[in-house]
Amino acid sequence: MADAKPTIFSIPVHRAFADALAAGLIARFADGALGLAEGLVLLPSNRARSAVQAAFVRAGGQGLLMPRLVVIGDADLDEEVALALDPIDESGILPPAIDPLRRRLMLAALIEKHQPAGEEAITGAAAFQLAEGLGRVIDQLHYEEVAPARLGEIAAVLGDLAQHWQASWARLRLLVEHWPAELKRAGMIDRAERRNRLLDRVSHGWRVALPARFVVAAGITTAAPAIVRLLRTVADMERGMVVLPGLDLGMAEEEWEALGPVAADPDNPARPLETHPQYHLKLLLGRMGVARGEVRTWEGVSAFDGPEARAGFVSLLFAPAAYTARWQDKTDLGAEIAGLSGAVFADDGQEAQGIALMMRAAVETPGRTAALVTPDRALAERVASALARWDIAVDDSAGRPLAKLPPGTLLLGLAELAARFDPVRLLTVLGHPLVRKGEARLAWLDQVRRLDLLLREPGLTPGWDGVSLRLALLTADSKARAHGAAAALHDWWGELVAGLGTHLAPLSAGTAVPPTTLLAALQAALGWLTGDAVWAGPAGRQLADLFDRWALAKGAGPALVMPGDFPAMLADLLGGESVRPPYGGHPRLFIWGLLEARLQRADVMILGGLDEGRWPQALSPDPWLAPGIRRLLGLAAPERQQGMAAHDFAGALAARKVVVTRAQRSGGDPAVASRFWLRLSALAGELPAAQIGGQVVTALTALLDVPPGDPHPAPRPAVVPPPEARPDKISVTGVDQLAHDPFAFYAAKILRLSALDPLSQGPDAKWFGTRVHKLLEDWQRAGMTEAALEAELAALAADPALDALARAFWLPRILPSLRWAAERVWAEREARWPVASEVKGAMVVDGIRLHGKADRIDQLADGSLAIVDYKSGSAPSGTAAAAGLDNQLGLLGLIAEAGQADGLDAAPVGALEYWSLKRDRAKGEEGKVSATHGSRRELKSAEEAVERAAEALADLTTRFLLGAEPFVPGDAAKRYSDFDQLMRRDEWFGRDDGGAA
Asked: Is there a contact between 639 and 275 (Cβ–Cβ < 8 Å)?
């Protein structure tokens, strides 16, 4: 090994790292024989290896043999590094690294088992979630080679910390002390510790014997001590070299020093500027014992390099705050920002559309490549979906969380359904695309649709038994039996309960059970629903691997978990599993995360999501270590991740053609421009607007889904059905609907359309009204005694269809009102008495059959009748009755006077009343009686009210049912209906012409 200075190079930030590296290595070692193939290149990640391989292919021309490429990065370290030792020293075989899932489960069990005195125990899913952060702390201690004994040396500063940090610190010390024994019993070691040992073996071996003709460590920026020792070993070799990405050799020395110290110095309390994109490189050089002046510029260029002036611009852009006054000296930045443009979109949806447009435009130029670089996974998914509209499939090389892919969503849906039964969750699971995939799926979906309609009816008793009860009532109905579908649905549901319900029973018990039991139940349920479909494809195989790894953990983990906590536990686990796409996406379009974008370039680089919290991403707090403790231990501050993000941004910004994008609103909320965007705007001013074919991208995006030409609002609907389509019968409530909104009557009674009830487990307003009417009907038929009333009220309170919300708010309000109604009936028993309830009646008026049902009919002392209608809310006003808009009671009176009410003889009507079961705050009573007539109303008597309703009926039937008047929408300014979308209400509402046709 030579005694010369260490050989360290830097590829300038404006150059495409992978291509410049390949060009330089070919120039140095490609001697026409095997010179290049006899070399060894160390790289930081698998993605970097792919980029370098592609660069060698591009630069190789007619072909060449590449050097051996070995990955030694933190995330991708494996046994490959041991291949660098030739031969492998079999005497020093290391224990295997523990699987990450098994380690997390073991740490969760450790958290449950050990807690400081006086502290509350952490169990179940909470322990599992905390175990992830604990694992990161242990890894960081290994990376920085901080001995566990060091934790006890800084206990003196705990008094300066908040109480929760002291509690966390005490728990952490306890766990770190017990963790090595747990690992020893398992016969394994931490992956980070194993990495350190492997790297040290490589370093020691290479100091004895060179592993190859030449060795290059390229693109590695991690300053972990073990990696630093390896890099120093490579740099000291006779034919070894370290090649760094984007080290700023042009930065002024005072700025370089302003980045802060690389090691703790009692005489220099200044904190390092870890958010700067160069700090982690300064730390790496400092730990290697190399001065920046010893680093040389790499000789090697490529067609992907950016303008040379961009390197100085990027350096100035990220100047420390104390040196940004130099920005004022830059008056002409034409050369520096040539090829740089920006786009500000209204929201992140338009941002995705605009980026997709730019990527599509790049494809139009033969050979041109384009890449979206963003840490925002949601933006990446939106762009991929937007490109699919043009049948362009692009791979998101950063992968997608398993929790968002079909196997993961089905697993989470099953866990949530088992933890708490809900119709929405049930139908989501049963209609999942993986369920009964194949020929049986159509028949399966037919039953799911029938079940959907059944579950939309209000008043469903919660749980699997509630659905079974409703199906039993349906099959008992003679009309339903006649169709045959009810029996088939009943049989299908029985098979579902016997299969899926049985498998999910352990999760529905409501008591804590071992997580392996819950996982086995979900695995069996997945198999019953999907067969092998859930395990197919990349996502399915990864889910199967997850189940296998959990099984191999041999019961490690929290002893017991509540089924209600298990879905959150699974979601946390699946969210950390990224599924990388298989090869096969578009060959010239790419979506890269920050890790994937390092060291590689495209012709067009689109840097998306430049909003604060998206790029750089918001920092996640460490639940275990306070920032001050991290500094004392020598661990990286969380802000260093933002410095790495800044370095990634600087590297991508230095490409030849760059578009930076951001959204003014993200996730529906106002967004703040990223600190990188603000610096860029402050230095370069307003960037040129990104364009496609001479048109601004933002303008094109806004018009993408807007039809060409001026808008032409549609006229208000004026439907004129033929006479034979107009109904010859109408209900008393249908008359009011026709009076208020003829179009709604047309849609409901002629088109026979109706809105589906919401798919919800809880009772709705319709159910409340129906249930109250039934209670009063049953009480009346039971003799209207006090005992009968209390029995009915008790049955209502015990109704299993009532959810917690209804019991807390609706039930306490309605019970006093029901008692008020009963007391009023008894108080007036000398003057009137109920003689019938739920009375149906019908009569023919001018050839139109009028029918309806009265909630209650009372016999008054003079022999006349009183028509009563119960309202669980407010009652219509007397003004509406006089205007012919509220005719329900008057028409029921018309039927009763004609003797057409079932079971009652013809008699005059003396009262038409609404009994509102709602507290009357003005009178301090629990209800209110409102008559449609009275001395202070326009209609003075019930007789006048009946006559006015008859007139309204004659007018409406003459115009709409017997005549040819069009069915137009009602007063849209005052009310909404179920048919607003059908009538395209928003297209004409509020227009100056009133929306007339």
From this structure: yes
Question: How is 167-195 classified by DSSP, letter by letter?
Answer: HHHHHHHHHHHHHHHHHHHHT-B-HHHHH
416-451 CB burial, b ≥16 within 10 A, e <16:
bbbbbbbbebbbbbbebebbbbeeebeebeebbebb
Secondary structure (H, E, C), 666-689? ECCEECCECHHHHHHHHHHCCCCE
Taking the C-alpha atoms of 326, 329, 333 and 337 in order, what is their torsion angle to the nearest 10 degrees? 10
Give the pLDDT score at 338: 92
Contact yes or no for 33/230 (Cβ under 8 A): no
Higher pLDDT, 172 or 429: 429
Mean of the per-residue pLDDT values of the chain: 87
**What confidence tens digit (pLDDT) does each residue in 939-986 have?**
899 999 999 999 999 999 999 999 999 998 886 555 677 888 888 877
Q: Is the peptide bond before 87 cis (omega within 30 degrees of 0)?
A: yes
Q: Is the pLDDT of residue 997 over 50?
A: no
How many Å separate Cα 263 from the centre of its chain?
Answer: 42
For 994, counting Cβ atoms within 10 Å of its Cβ (0-12 exposed, 13-18 middle, 19+ buried), the class is exposed
Burial class (CB within 10 angstroms; exposed 0-12, middle 13-18, buried 19+) of 32: exposed
pLDDT of residue 513: 85
Q: What is the pLDDT of residues 570-593, one digit of tens each?
A: 998 998 888 887 777 889 999 998
- CA nearest 228: which of 270, 180, 205, 196? 196
Question: Can you give the pLDDT at residue 1?
Answer: 45
Binned at pLDDT 50, 70 and 90, residue 704 comes out as confident
Q: Is 352 exposed, middle or buried (0-12, 13-18, 19+ CB in 10 A)?
A: buried
C-alpha 716/C-alpha 288 separation (Å) is 78
Q: Where are the beta strands (DSSP E) in 447-566?
A: none
What are the two backbone dihedrals, phi and then psi, of residue 312, each rounded to the nearest 5 degrees? -65, -35
Long-range contacts of 1-5 (CB under 8 A, 24+ apart): 1/207, 1/236, 1/237, 1/238, 2/236, 2/237, 2/238, 5/294
For the record, the structure tokens of 917 come out as 């079961």
To the nearest 5 percent, what fractions of the chain are helix, strand and coil?
A: 50, 15, 40
Q: How far apart are CA 719 and CA 969, in angstroms?
A: 10
- Asked whether residue 59 carries a pLDDT value surpassing 90, the answer given is no
Q: Which of 399, 398, 395, 397 is nearest to 587 (CA)?
A: 395
Q: Please report the DSSP string for 377-419 in residue order.
A: HHHHHHHHHHHHTTT----BTT-EEGGGSHHHHHHHHHHHHHH
Amino acid letter, 402 = L
- List CB contacts of 548: < 8 A, sequence separation 6 or more: none
What's the mean pLDDT in 198-227?
89
Report the alpha-carbon angle 668-671-674, nearest 5.
150
Percentage of the chain lying above the pLDDT 90 cut: 49
Angle (nearest 5°) at CA 60 between 58 and 66: 105
Write out the DSSP string of 309-352.
HHHHHHHHHT--GGGGGGGGG----TTTTTTEEEEEESSHHHHH
To 5 degrees, how large is the angle CA 322–CA 671–CA 667? 145
Which residues pair with residue 670 across a beta bridge? Answer: 665
Which pLDDT band, with edges at 50, 70 and 90, does 82 fall under?
Answer: low
Residue 618 neighbours by CB distance under 10 Å: 9
Single-letter amino acid, residue 600 = Q
From 146, 232, 226, select the one nearest 194 (Cα to Cα).
Answer: 226
Is the pLDDT at 661 greater than 90, yes or no?
Answer: yes
Distance CA 203, CA 80 (A): 14
pLDDT band at 739 (very low <50, low <70, confident <90, very high): very high
DSSP per residue, 565-590: THHHHHHHHHHT-EEPPPS-S-TTEE
> For residue 160, what pLDDT band results from cuts at 50, 70 and 90?
low
- Inter-CA distances, 976 with 57, 763, 876, 986, Å: 65, 22, 17, 11
Q: What tokens appear for 721 in the block?
A: 């059905």
